[in-house]
Design goal:
Structural class: mainly alpha
Oligomer: single chain
Helix content: over 70%
Shape: flat
GO molecular function: cytoskeletal anchor activity
CATH architecture of the domain at 48-170: Up-down Bundle
Number of strands: 0
Pfam family, one: INSC_LBD
Radius of gyration: 29 Å
Protein name: INSC protein
Number of helices: 26
InterPro entries: ARM-like, ARM-type_fold, Armadillo, Insc_C, INSC_LBD, INSC_LBD_sf, Inscuteable
CATH topology of the domain at 48-170: Four Helix Bundle (Hemerythrin (Met), subunit A)
GO biological process, one term: apical protein localization
CATH class of the domain at 48-170: Mainly Alpha
């Protein structure tokens, strides 16, 4: 179960006011009492929560139960019977509280859900009784014989719990989608979409449930009604989340979602926020990391107008976030189909992207520069690109990107900086087949920088992919300008096989003491 990553102290502070003693809750019929420092955090449901808050509490409760069941299995392996029993009592409490909490706000739960609730409660009671018997005996043979029964009961509890949660989440997704489809109220529709988006943030499994229950169909229906225009950004953001799973992509194809997105992107009457969220959906469905994009045949039919609209959005972006979404979509499309690079060349996209990079208000993060250099790298396979790079002072930009470093130390930002360095070196290597580009690179001192990146692991954050790209670029430039290298650099970084130079550079800081 996915939980948002936050600072542990912050999470403790949030949970502190909700703590209760689990064992005493069972005895005192869930009445909150003062906490004991040895006890686990407990959740208490407030009647003021709306549907979205109720679902978040349900998911948090489910995560706690799932974690406790895992810990019980671990303690059982070590024969920690006292701990197994206390944790079983706690799980029993959590399960009953979760069911009571859910039934307090649920509308029309199915008969199947009630059946699983009863099965789960009965099995939890049986589980507690088993573990209680275990702490009352010290006979190793009896404990050994009971261990398999307890393991079997634990497996059954986990199965019933998983089935119940699946039914609950499916039921809630159905309720939200029914609201979206049937309500004429802007306020109710907006709340339902907001709740649906919150569910999509809980992981791929929930996205699959929503997709299977018709979430993509319902949301595109909203995007085809002018009366809901103000909800388009929120609706498209939810669609982008659902389309991270294969089921969502299949549904998008069935409802002609690509055509709808193309219409939104090319309609100048829509707000920039709507265009940006439509670009985010395009970026999601064309992601090179997904393995199930091949069936998007309708995308190729609409690709030219989509690419044209995205280039326009990059050119007119009023913020770094809008530019990032539009450029990410373009970067992914250049992987998706090679024809996109030719369209970009015809649209003078190279000039637009290079100009944007000089505006620190628009291209303001390594993530944005990563998208730009990805497009440049993929376009650099075309011979016509060299002249565009020279005209737009692109070699200077690529040189600057070789110095990309993270200012925060954040792991995601560090990874983005590595990609920027790698792709800028790849682009230089590809473009340096043109003598004019190679000459410009040499004059800008690209060779010393590439040597530094090869020889100093800290300069490239110990990245092997950056090293390989820099070695390739250095060898290409060395052919065009051999006088730019010292003999030792030539002998170690250019003359040997690339794999030998790679091994030499990766071993430079090893200690053999």
């Amino acid at each position: 179960m996915h939980l948002i990553q936050v600072d542990s102290v912050q999470r403790w502070m949030e949970d502190l006011k909700l703590m209760t003693d689990c064992e005493c809750m069972c005895i005192l019929q869930s009445k909150p009492i003062s906490i004991e420092k040895d006890e686990q955090n407990e959740l208490l449901l407030s009647s003021q929560y709306n549907t979205c808050d109720n679902l978040q509490l349900l998911l948090k409760r489910a995560w706690i139960i799932s974690t406790e069941l895992t810990r019980i299995a671990q303690k059982l392996e070590k024969n920690r019977w006292q701990r197994v029993h206390s944790m079983t009592v706690r799980v029993n409490c959590h399960v009953r509280s979760m069911i009571n909490e859910y039934n307090a706000f649920s509308r029309n739960p199915s008969e199947e859900m009630h059946q699983y609730e009863k099965l789960l409660i009965d099995k939890c009671s049986e589980f507690t009784a088993f573990t209680e018997r275990c702490i009352q005996t010290e006979d190793e043979q009896i404990l050994k014989s009971m261990k398999s029964c307890i393991n079997e009961t634990l497996t059954t509890v986990a199965h019933y719990f998983g089935q119940l949660i699946e039914l609950v989440l499916t039921h809630e997704a159905q309720n939200l989608l029914r609201q979206i489809e049937l309500s004429d109220s802007m306020y109710i529709t907006e709340l339902a979409i907001s709740s649906l988006f919150s569910l999509t943030q809980e992981g791929a499994h929930l996205c699959r449930i929503i997709a299977k229950e018709g979430g993509v169909v319902a949301l595109f229906k909203i995007c085809r009604q002018d009366c809901f225009r103000c909800l388009y950004p929120q609706t498209l953001r939810t669609l982008a989340s659902i389309c991270c799973v294969e089921e969502g992509m299949h549904q998008l194809e069935k409802v002609d979602g690509i055509l709808c997105l193309a219409d939104i992107l090319t309609d100048n009457s829509h707000s920039e926020a709507t265009h940006a969220e439509a670009a985010a959906v395009i970026a999601q469905i064309t992601s090179p990391h997904l393995t199930f994009t091949q069936h998007l045949s309708s995308f190729l039919e609409n690709m030219e107008e989509i690419v044209t609209a995205l280039v326009k959005l990059c050119k007119e972006a009023s913020s770094g976030e809008v530019f990032l979404l539009a450029s990410a979509a373009l970067a992914n499309i250049t992987f998706f189909d090679t024809m996109a690079c030719e369209i970009l060349l015809q649209l003078n996209a190279m000039k637009i992207l290079l100009a944007a990079c000089s505006d620190k208000h628009i291209v303001d993060t390594p993530y944005s520069r990563d998208q730009v250099v990805t497009i440049l790298a993929n376009m650099s396979v075309l011979d016509q690109c060299a002249s565009e790079i020279i005209e737009g002072n692109g070699v200077q930009l690529l040189m600057e990107m070789l110095f990309e470093r993270s200012s925060s130390g954040n792991s995601a930002e560090v990874a983005a900086c590595e990609r920027v360095q790698q792709k800028s070196a790849v682009t230089l290597a590809r473009l340096s087949r043109d003598p004019e580009v190679a000459d410009a690179a040499v004059k800008l001192s690209c060779i010393p920088r590439l040597i530094k990146l090869c020889r100093s692991p800290t300069e490239r954050n110990n990245s092997d992919s950056v090293l390989v790209a820099c070695l390739a670029a250095l060898r290409r430039l060395a052919v065009m300008s051999p006088e730019g290298l010292e003999d030792s650099d030539f002998q170690q970084l250019v003359k040997p096989r690339l794999v030998d130079s790679f091994l030499l550079c990766t071993n430079m800081e090893e200690s053999f003491v």
